[in-house]
């Protein structure tokens, strides 16, 4: 089965700035794929080229085996990071239009949009103007706009930014629902925790290049089980000066200690017990966050 | 095609459904109709009333002819428009007049006409009235007085003139102007009528081009500032979006212009039925079918040319303030021909007018003006339209490229050289 999206040596510059610098990527069908990286890494530019909003300087984009463009646009639902609505338009008319420009007849788009609004508890707001809605409601409307017409591929650019926790959960459930019913989903984010929870496969982008790529468990395995979670009482500042410790991340309640290759966790435990009261000691896979910071290095302040 | 139609549909319905559209659309015809109806109504009441003129005649001979001549002017219901009251001179002319003046102020008299004994004296004839601005009445009085004076002069010089000859002597010489057209056609037309008709059309053309050009620009700016552009571009190509917008708003413009045309037609019908004075029907006669056809042609051509440019301005700017500067050259291109309407109408065949009517940015207005006052050679009309079409095609292509790049750019507005570089692709 061909990929949902395949990118081949994609390059795009704006003036002298190379936003995308030779990205090649296969995104399989039917999974949730995370495009992760710091702000300005080239995620949005890549997405825009998948949608044929931007044309690459060189390289090739294929969606479901077809060159990106008009033919496949209707199969893609897109929720851009910069998403807006016509403020003076009624909610149902707004969605009707969004459905219609994706190929549906106005009546059919209306019916589908109406059903979604009911399902997301916005039924009473159908004939209100967009500007009367709260921000959270507008976000729901925008999300519905992206999924009208049962797109085979859903591209969500930072879908969770600015959402309150309730909506975050609602959207996450919707995403999983759509994915289960067959939609391939690409979503870009700089929130590692979200990506870690949802994605089956990821690509880490930095400075217009892919730094790391593959199924999440493989990516993690590549970094080995050499992280340790330590929860304790006392002064933990000694941890970073112990031999064999690569880095220490303080999360307040606990610390994640990354060991150098070949270092022995038992030695760490022994050293810790001598100095503080250990409550929890667990050998874990590194978090995506840590992998990300290691890979991206100096740019981590963006994340 | 479906997508393009959907964009057109939205742009059209969105605007047509607005109350402000109908308000704006109905206001101008209502104003036009209102003005004409008021004029007609006023003319009716005015001409329906019989006015009295006091004649204070030191010669004592003018009254019969003056009265008879004045009586030729009728009110609407067939009565003489003026009644003459001969007042004998008591004391001096001025004293007699002063005694009568209160009756003017009370509305009893329309005016007092005083005539001295010496017909050769320069200020021998004087009209005192409450309103001296009524040119029609003054002209009527003047004509009647002239007839009476002429009769008296003939009598004093012992010349006997038969009444028929007298009539001919007094008949005014009128000049009617004709417009020479191709194939020996001539058309009766005065300059005033040509000018008024053309000016009205050019005003509407100017307003429509500016209004709808700016509407397209605003629409694009709105989509940019509401951050909706990228949502739309996920489903539409930039070309579909731009073309759909221009066509949709163009249809709104056509709807509005059609409503104007229809109300002008109704107005004309009404005026004809009311058998109103020649001056007004004359101006409306200038609205021939041919004129209306050319109006639509040049409105459409001008619309596409200008809106493509306004669309480009919208695409590269982030706010209306920013767009102000960039759109001002476009507005100038529209204002210049409008401001020069008088020149183009009075010298429609001058080299300046011919050249201006071939320059695409001026052509829609200037060529249309020339067509309304004379019939330019066919090759000039054809060349003008061809140049317009060609330029519009080139603009659309260039603007399409600008649009593609510009609509997703926020931040600093690109410079004009940068924009031109995008347009070349």
The average pLDDT value of chain A, as a whole number, equals: 87
Distance N to C terminus of chain A: 35 Å
Order of H and E elements of chain B: HHEHEHEEHHEEHHHHHHHHHHH
Shape of chain A: globular
Q: Please give the number of β-strands of chain B.
A: 6
SSE series of chain A: EEEHEEHEHHHEHEHEEHEEEHEH
Summarize the structure.
Chain A is built from ten helices and 14 strands. Chain A has helices spanning 43-50, 70-73, 91-100, 106-119, 135-147, 165-180, 192-198, 216-222, 265-275, 288-296, and strands at residues 5-14, 17-27, 32-36, 58-63, 66-67, 76-79, 153-157, 184-189, 201-206, 209-215, 227-233, 245-250, 255-259, 277-284. The radius of gyration of chain A is 22 Å and the shape is globular.
Strand and helix layout:
The complex is a heterodimer of chains A (303) and B (425).
Chain A: E1 5-14, E2 17-27, E3 32-36, H1 43-50, E4 58-63, E5 66-67, H2 70-73, E6 76-79, H3 91-100, H4 106-119, H5 135-147, E7 153-157, H6 165-180, E8 184-189, H7 192-198, E9 201-206, E10 209-215, H8 216-222, E11 227-233, E12 245-250, E13 255-259, H9 265-275, E14 277-284, H10 288-296
Parallel strand pairs in A: 3-8, 3-9, 6-7, 7-8
Antiparallel strand pairs in A: 1-2, 1-4, 4-5, 9-10, 11-13, 11-14, 12-13
Chain B: H1 2-16, H2 19-48, E1 51-57, H3 63-70, E2 82-86, H4 93-105, E3 111-115, E4 125-129, H5 135-156, H6 163-170, E5 178-180, E6 186-188, H7 191-225, H8 229-233, H9 238-273, H10 278-285, H11 289-316, H12 320-339, H13 341-346, H14 351-356, H15 363-373, H16 378-406, H17 416-424
Parallel strand pairs in B: 1-2, 1-3
Antiparallel strand pairs in B: 3-4, 5-6
């Amino acid at each position: 089965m061909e990929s949902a999206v395949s990118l081949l040596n994609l390059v795009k510059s704006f003036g002298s700035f190379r936003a995308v610098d030779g990205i090649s990527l296969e995104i399989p069908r039917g999974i949730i794929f995370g495009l992760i990286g710091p702000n300005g890494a080239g995620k949005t530019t890549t997405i825009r080229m998948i949608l044929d909003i931007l044309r690459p300087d060189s390289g090739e984009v294929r969606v479901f085996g077809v060159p990106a463009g008009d033919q496949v646009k209707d199969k893609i639902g897109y929720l851009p990071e910069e998403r807006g609505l016509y403020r003076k338009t009624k909610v149902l008319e707004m969605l009707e239009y969004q459905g219609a420009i994706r190929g549906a007849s106005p009546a059919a788009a209306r019916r589908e949009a109406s059903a979604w609004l009911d399902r997301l508890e916005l039924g009473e707001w159908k004939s209100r103007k967009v500007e009367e809605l709260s921000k959270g409601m507008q976000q729901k409307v925008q999300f519905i706009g992206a999924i009208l017409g049962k797109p085979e591929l859903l591209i969500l650019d930072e879908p969770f930014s600015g959402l309150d926790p309730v909506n975050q959960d609602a959207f996450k459930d919707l995403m999983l629902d759509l994915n289960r019913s067959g939609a391939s989903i690409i979503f870009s984010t700089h929130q590692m925790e979200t990506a870690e929870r949802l994605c089956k496969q990821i690509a880490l982008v930095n400075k217009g290049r892919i730094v790391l790529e593959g199924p999440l468990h493989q990516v993690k395995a590549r970094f080995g089980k050499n992280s340790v979670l330590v929860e304790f009482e006392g002064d933990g500042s000694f941890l970073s000066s112990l031999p064999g410790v690569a880095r220490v991340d303080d999360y307040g309640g606990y610390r994640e200690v990354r060991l150098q290759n070949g270092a022995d966790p038992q030695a760490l435990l022994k050293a810790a017990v001598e100095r503080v009261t250990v409550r929890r000691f667990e050998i874990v896979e590194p978090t995506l966050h840590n992998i990300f910071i290691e890979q991206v290095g100096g740019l981590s302040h963006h994340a | 095609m479906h997508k393009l139609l959907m964009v057109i549909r939205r742009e059209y319905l969105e605007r047509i459904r607005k109350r402000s559209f109908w308000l704006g659309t109905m206001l101008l015809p209502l104003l036009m109709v209102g003005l004409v109806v008021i004029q007609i109504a006023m003319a009716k009441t005015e001409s329906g009333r019989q006015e009295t003129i006091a004649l204070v005649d030191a010669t004592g001979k003018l009254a019969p002819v003056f009265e008879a001549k004045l009586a030729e002017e009728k009110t609407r219901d067939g009565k003489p428009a003026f009644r003459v009251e001969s007042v004998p001179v008591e004391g001096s002319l001025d004293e007699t007049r002063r005694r009568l003046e209160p009756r003017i102020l009370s509305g009893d008299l329309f005016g007092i006409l005083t005539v001295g004994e010496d017909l050769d004296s320069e200020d021998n004839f004087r009209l005192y009235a409450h309103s001296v601005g009524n040119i029609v009445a003054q002209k009527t009085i003047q004509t009647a007085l002239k007839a009476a004076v002429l009769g008296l002069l003939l009598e004093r010089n012992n010349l006997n003139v038969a009444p028929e000859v007298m009539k001919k002597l007094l008949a005014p010489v009128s000049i009617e102007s004709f417009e020479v057209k191709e194939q020996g056609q001539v058309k009766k037309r005065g300059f005033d009528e040509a000018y008024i008709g053309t000016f009205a059309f050019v005003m509407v053309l100017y307003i429509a081009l500016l209004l709808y050009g700016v509407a397209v620009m605003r629409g694009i700016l709105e989509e940019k500032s509401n951050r909706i552009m990228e949502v739309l571009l996920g489903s539409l190509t930039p070309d579909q979006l731009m073309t759909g917008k221009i066509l949709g708003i163009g249809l709104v413009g056509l709807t509005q212009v059609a409503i104007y045309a229809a109300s002008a037609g109704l107005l004309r019908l009404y005026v004809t039925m009311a058998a109103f004075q020649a001056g007004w029907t004359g101006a409306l006669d200038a609205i021939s079918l041919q004129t209306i056809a050319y109006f639509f042609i040049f409105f459409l051509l001008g619309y596409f040319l200008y809106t493509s440019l306004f669309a480009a301005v919208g695409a590269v700017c982030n706010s209306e303030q920013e767009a102000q500067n960039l759109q001002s050259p476009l507005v100038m291109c529209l204002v210049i021909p409008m401001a020069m309407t008088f020149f183009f109408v009075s010298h429609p065949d001058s080299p300046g007018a011919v050249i201006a009517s071939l320059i695409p940015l001026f052509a829609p207005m200037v060529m249309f003006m020339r067509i309304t006052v004379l019939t330019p050679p066919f090759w000039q009309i054809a060349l003008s339209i061809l140049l317009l079409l060609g330029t519009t095609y080139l603009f659309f292509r260039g603007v399409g490229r600008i649009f593609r790049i510009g609509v997703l750019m926020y931040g600093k507005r690109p410079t004009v050289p940068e924009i031109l570089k995008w347009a070349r692709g």
